[in-house]
Amino acid sequence: MAQPKQQLDTFRAWAGKSSDINFYLNSHHIDIHNWFVSHMAHPTRVSALAATGVAAAKLERPCEDTITLSCQWANRDGSGMGTAIYTASWIAPKGECHTRQHLHYMGQQGELHADQAHRGYNTATDESGYAALNPLYMRYTPDANGFFAGQSGYGYISIAAFIEAAAALNSGARSISYYEQEGVLALASKTLAVTAILQAGRLSLDNAGAAVDILYDDDGQPREVRLAGGSSNGADAAMG
To answer: Are strands 81-92 and 2-4 parallel, antiparallel or unpaired?
Structure first.
């Protein structure tokens, strides 16, 4: 997954300081992969590599251009192992789409290819040239009366669903068990593995690409990321 280097200007305030391209962009495909397989597998080890040069020169501070994570997954029943490669960058040239995103998942009995960069909507103008659009995310143009009309885009719906769920929980109209049902709403408790992978990647980068293990508590939730073969120390990170 990659975005144009103009993003470094957009995110200048925090890029390479409080976050990186891994947390910002790689998290999307890590999250969907976790959604695919978390019922039967979990991540156990991560190592990371990075490309540098463009972002650091532009921002005048250390900041990775591209980060690639290699992640080992293990079936919960001990029947097998899996691997995943996640790559994200924010130094791509300006192209026909804002986010170049492709996904390939291969399982034991089938595979999936997704070109999420091209949604089937293309335009070409004298001013802007050729562009591949994603009108499903948000409508930015007003309706006939000049009012906001983006309520049907999935970018808006996802935020609205969270707010409505919080209101329903606070009022007692719904219980957490309702939202724990598959397909109702993404919950933080279901995505701890995503945070563990991202944090393990950061720890790996900060330690010259060393392998990092993800450790679990008795309930099967990630509790700590730790340099492989090492004891717990200040470089490790407990899961909140």
So the answer is: parallel
User: What single-letter DSSP state applies at residue 94?
Assistant: P
CB contact at 8 A, 144 and 157: no
Query: Mind listing the pLDDT tens digit for each residue in 131-140?
Result: 998 888 888 8
Is the pTM value of this prediction over 0.85? yes
Cross-strand bridge partners of residue 238: 224
Taking only Cα atoms into account, the Rg of the chain, rounded to an integer number of angstroms, comes to 20
Joined tokens for residue 43:
């991540």
What contacts 227, CB < 8 A, 6 or more positions away?
A: 203, 207, 210, 211, 212, 213, 235, 236
Residue by residue, DSSP assigns 147-183 as ----TTSHHHHHHHHHHHHHHHHHHTSS-HHHHTSTT
Instruction: Give which of 113, 35, 24, 69 is closest to 201, Cα–Cα.
Output: 69
Per-residue model confidence as pLDDT tens digits over 71-83: 999 999 999 999 9
* Crossing angle for the helix pair 27-37 and 192-205, to the nearest 10 degrees: 130
Between CA 132 and CA 48 the distance in angstroms is 31
Q: 211 is written with which tokens?
A: 């392998």
CA distances from 220 to 155, 166, 227 (A): 31, 26, 20
Cα-based torsion angle of the residue sequence 63, 64, 65, 70 in order, rounded to the nearest 10 degrees: -160
Grouping H, G, I as helix, E, B as strand and the rest as coil, residue 59 is helix
